[in-house]
Amino acid sequence: MSTITLQLVTIIAERVLKDQLIDEVRTLGATGYTLTDVEGEGSRGVRASEWEKRNVKLEVIVSDDVAEAITEHVSARYFEHYAVILYSHPIEVVRGSKYR
Amino acid sequence: MSTITLQLVTIIAERVLKDQLIDEVRTLGATGYTLTDVEGEGSRGVRASEWEKRNVKLEVIVSDDVAEAITEHVSARYFEHYAVILYSHPIEVVRGSKYR
Amino acid sequence: MSTITLQLVTIIAERVLKDQLIDEVRTLGATGYTLTDVEGEGSRGVRASEWEKRNVKLEVIVSDDVAEAITEHVSARYFEHYAVILYSHPIEVVRGSKYR
Amino acid sequence: MGTVDILLANLFSPIILAFVLGIFASLIRSDLRFPDELYTALSIYLLLAIGLKGGAELSETPFLTFLGPMLATLALGSLTPITSYFVLRRIGALDRINAAAIAAHYGSVSVVTFIAAQAFIDLAGVTGEGFLPALVALLEIPAIIVGLMIAQIGSREAGSWKKALHEVLAGRSIVLLLGGLAIGLVVGKSGLEPVEPFFVNGFQGALTLFLLEMGLVTARRLRDLRKVGLFLVGFGIVMPILHGILGVWVGGLAGLSLGGSAVFGTIVASASYIAAPAAVRIALPEANPTFYLTASLGITFPFNITLGIPLYFTVAQWLA
Amino acid sequence: MGTVDILLANLFSPIILAFVLGIFASLIRSDLRFPDELYTALSIYLLLAIGLKGGAELSETPFLTFLGPMLATLALGSLTPITSYFVLRRIGALDRINAAAIAAHYGSVSVVTFIAAQAFIDLAGVTGEGFLPALVALLEIPAIIVGLMIAQIGSREAGSWKKALHEVLAGRSIVLLLGGLAIGLVVGKSGLEPVEPFFVNGFQGALTLFLLEMGLVTARRLRDLRKVGLFLVGFGIVMPILHGILGVWVGGLAGLSLGGSAVFGTIVASASYIAAPAAVRIALPEANPTFYLTASLGITFPFNITLGIPLYFTVAQWLA
Amino acid sequence: MGTVDILLANLFSPIILAFVLGIFASLIRSDLRFPDELYTALSIYLLLAIGLKGGAELSETPFLTFLGPMLATLALGSLTPITSYFVLRRIGALDRINAAAIAAHYGSVSVVTFIAAQAFIDLAGVTGEGFLPALVALLEIPAIIVGLMIAQIGSREAGSWKKALHEVLAGRSIVLLLGGLAIGLVVGKSGLEPVEPFFVNGFQGALTLFLLEMGLVTARRLRDLRKVGLFLVGFGIVMPILHGILGVWVGGLAGLSLGGSAVFGTIVASASYIAAPAAVRIALPEANPTFYLTASLGITFPFNITLGIPLYFTVAQWLA
Ligand SMILES: Nc1ncnc2c1ncn2[C@@H]1O[C@H](COP(=O)(O)O)[C@@H](O)[C@H]1O
Ligand SMILES: Nc1ncnc2c1ncn2[C@@H]1O[C@H](COP(=O)(O)O)[C@@H](O)[C@H]1O
Ligand SMILES: Nc1ncnc2c1ncn2[C@@H]1O[C@H](COP(=O)(O)O)[C@@H](O)[C@H]1O
Ligand code: NA
Ligand code: NA
Ligand code: NA
């Protein structure tokens, strides 16, 4: 089975940012996304919701370039004031053309 | 701590396929699985449910051979007509004999 | 964008262990954690809850040393009697200093 | 009541207005969303409640009166997918697979539309037969089988029939409707008294909440209207009218009361959007869900609960 | 009412039939499933409601009548795990750890069984003392402590006692039962009136829904029956009968009314499947959950709510 | 009723005691937790119910009586964030951004506090105007706009205004309140009858359950009290008292009844902890959520529902 290597970029963020993060990763080139409700604690703590699972995990499968663009954007825009983390690692994907 | 390297195969699929996917990965050699309710959008869009978190993420830890077999099977059977994606990457596992 | 490599350690465990696992990974050096409700089956099967999504997935981003410590601890303490699995893989993280 | 009064009484009832509110909230992109679990909880409640009530009433009905309507149900359940299929193929020029998939939906039944019809005749001060929920369960199945059979003829690559059928037969709507009916039948009206405040008195309110959610869901479908083309929009309105009138008439012949035949016409007119999609998705993966879901949920469902039900009721009044 | 009438009245009540429907749905592999959140919501509601109602009634009961039943509860709560343990060791030849684990479950209490007993005596037209929910809370704890203590004797590797105890004491069933009781006590019967439609009138219906889910859950356990062996199946039926009769008798001695001692017998007979498993899993990880869960949830629970409760009630009638 | 009676009647009502139970459960680290979905379901229910009831009553009120209160609402909604801001800057010496963020919260409104006030005057045997829910919706918005405007003046880096505003205007509390109001208005009192058992009779009970959850949530906030400092604790009590008295007085001037002005005073006194935080988090990310959430949810909310409401009611009695 021929596969290609792409990046899986994971963003964990406070829920209030959900919609705008989805918009932004799409604009930067992601062809799809997967969302999971998660809970968590980190170094920043409090955020603007006492209800609803407090965080979302947004996963996008993208090329290296798009991964870099998303990383830059999220770091610049959200890291200072919001509870957001981002990480990525390579994965093997079948039918890679789908993610372009 | 001695660990061994196995594959973590992730399948994201529309919910209607949940039960048969589980059956199939077990038949192909997975000794266990983990399921998460997720939402998402990709290139195909619509599917047969307006309710319930629309996708499931099925994760299985398997040897390289089983990973390949699952990848072949899912590609052949589901990719044409269903909203399904599959990817994999290596992980370090303790007590690897459990997954044989 | 300058990133550093850390370990993403994933623990999937029966729900009754949730609180003590969180306490323990923090004690061993994790600066944060992310929790997801999951379901699953493995080789051990039954556990002490018929309700609530039966497993939790606990993910922590940590340095290699802490990853090793967590792996040792969880293996020693839980593997014999509880339904618990653990695996890890390297990820690229922005602002790595946060996780020390 | 005159026809216009009936229509207005329906349109200005809390349940229909809640449905409209749901659509409106979705259009202004409100963050109002029902958790999946609330949707599931409400539907479990509504299905069980309708079964229980029907069963308790059935316990006081002579069983023989059930035979005619039962046969009528099986007949129409096998006929309507075929009429739908031919209209879709001949007039709509759809391909075999998609036509069969949509036909399965229009032959089958929407339980919520049934419940709305029940609520409507209640409002109109008329009662229906206690066994109507049983007819709903009976009507849900044959059309899906017929639809899948049509698709199968001449197609080699058979989908998973057994799974699709089990999906419908052991599906939660059938289990809860028939289960509730059986319980109601066994305990009778007096045995149901302790649970009446919960299952009977609370019913209309819970239904209102449920239709608010249905409005939110339907609105999402409305966005796909353009994709399905004008023919399917017309089909989604004209087909139920024809099936509905047919249903009212046959229901009357089979011995149903005024209220009973109005409700029967409604369920014949209604199109499934829960059981059928799940079965069709498994058995006919090549069929395009945008077509069958948008038609049944985006067009026929809102048409039926707003204009269709009063129409079928009026027809039933004429024929009575 | 004669014994047979009592039995039939129980078996043909909506709540028991709903339980049977749940088992049936699971056997035919229906996709009917309750979301976890609905289960949690219903159990919060039921526990609080039972507490509130008990509290309001308690506010009109002289406090001294509470003393006897309280002591009886503590005594039986410490005795029943010991009798269970010896039967399991001597007759069943189970190892120390598993015997202690199961003993903790049979000493403790199933709140749903208690609620079913309350609903049953209501149906039978009898009332129980308002403080019965308090006895349930009281009975939940000592058995778990005694069970864990038995396991500890002679075992070096101590599990986490403190966590296990906190799990029970601050567990939501105790908090909601006692909290509801306290609120009901403070506001009294008149103060409870505004919330009566919700907490009192809706109760039986919500319980019906809840037992439907219990049926689904129990059925999953039934599949493990083979794994636990014949002895444990017998134990799960005979032990509650003995404990139940003992409970009815001691309850009567302690001054409880007919209804009160029937309910008291039931809770003594019942086996925990929520609080005890969680505590035992933490404190005795070596014990096999298949044993204690299948026995308490798969055998004793269905036995008690179908046959046990009418039996204990009949015994209470004889002794009264 | 004397002031003390009023106070005790409020403190010993099931809803306030349920709130206290929630706080208590959290303090003893009970595992009692409401699933998010139950919280959402209850809040959808409460908002829609309060709207429906208000709308039905409004349908029998001459519309002109609505004008005065409407203007009063807009005036106070613009004034209270400004008074709050100056107190926070001058006396509290907070920085501009945090002061503006908190001011937006104290100008806006807490719907649960409003509902508690409605329940309170019901208990006291007094009724309020049917359009009060409309005033709540009206009051929710201007303060948030004013708060964000204050923050904007002199700050270059504008947050996302449009998103923040849409978040409030199309937020589910506004949509459900106004939507319910519209439905109630259209169907009138008689049209609401079928859904009354669900939406009216069940209301107080559902509110009790909801306040139990609010207690659990508030308790989590209480842990942050130390972090916010003594000034903010005082502010969270004194500011609502001042705003509340002002509200009662202006409400009376605008023509509201005794019950109406008590409730109006309460909503003016209340601080938002749902709509405002979401909007402020988006538009003013630099503001510290610990400050505004702890003040509005941890201090002002519990103060208002326990002591505040009886106080505003007493003031309304004096002024009447
Ligand atoms: N070390 C970590 N490991 C795993 N998840 C983390 C870690 N740190 C933070 N997170 C997640 O990221 C979210 C935001 O983190 P923070 O910005 O540090 O508050 C947290 O709520 C967690 O869900
Ligand atoms: N680029 C992507 N990144 C992450 N998840 C994706 C991506 N594309 C698709 N998915 C997930 O896979 C599901 C099916 O995708 P599709 O078949 O493209 O509709 C979607 O609903 C998403 O949950
Ligand atoms: N091979 C596997 N692949 C993915 N998840 C697994 C696998 N084996 C076990 N798990 C997960 O780990 C949990 C505990 O496994 P076990 O201890 O084998 O019962 C299961 O409930 C699954 O969620
Ligand atoms: Na039909
Ligand atoms: Na017991
Ligand atoms: Na205010």
How would you characterize the overall build of this protein?
The complex is a heterohexamer, with 3 copies of chain A (100 residues) and 3 copies of chain D (320 residues). Chain A is of the alpha+beta class and 100 residues long. Chain A has one domain (3-93): Alpha-Beta Plaits, CATH 3.30.70. Chain A has 2 helices and 4 strands. The radius of gyration of chain A is 14 Å and the shape is elongated. With 320 residues, chain D is mostly helical. Helix content of chain D is 79%, strand content 0%. The longest helix of chain D has 31 residues, at 289-319. Classes of the chains: A alpha+beta (100), D mainly alpha (320). The D-F interface holds D 12-14, 17-18, 21, 24-25, 28-38, 41, 119, 122-123, 197, 201-206, 208-209, 212 and F 35-37, 40-41, 44-45, 48, 52, 166-167, 170-172, 175-176, 179, 182-183, 186-187, 191-192, 194-199, 201-202. The structure holds adenosine monophosphate (AMP) (3 copies) and sodium ion (NA) (3 copies).
Please give the structural blueprint:
The complex is a heterohexamer, with 3 copies of chain A (100 residues) and 3 copies of chain D (320 residues).
Chain A: E1 3-14, H1 18-27, E2 33-41, E3 55-62, H2 64-78, E4 84-94
Chain D: H1 3-11, H2 14-27, H3 36-58, H4 67-91, H5 96-107, H6 111-123, H7 132-152, H8 161-169, H9 172-192, H10 196-201, H11 203-222, H12 225-253, H13 258-269, H14 275-283, H15 289-319
Helix pairs in contact in D: 1-15, 2-11, 3-9, 3-11, 4-5, 4-7, 4-12, 5-7, 5-15, 6-13, 6-15, 7-8, 7-9, 7-13, 8-14, 11-15, 12-13, 12-15, 13-15
The complex binds adenosine monophosphate (3 copies) and sodium ion (3 copies).
One adenosine monophosphate (AMP) sits between chains B (12, 40-45, 55, 83-85) and A (30-34, 59-61, 99).
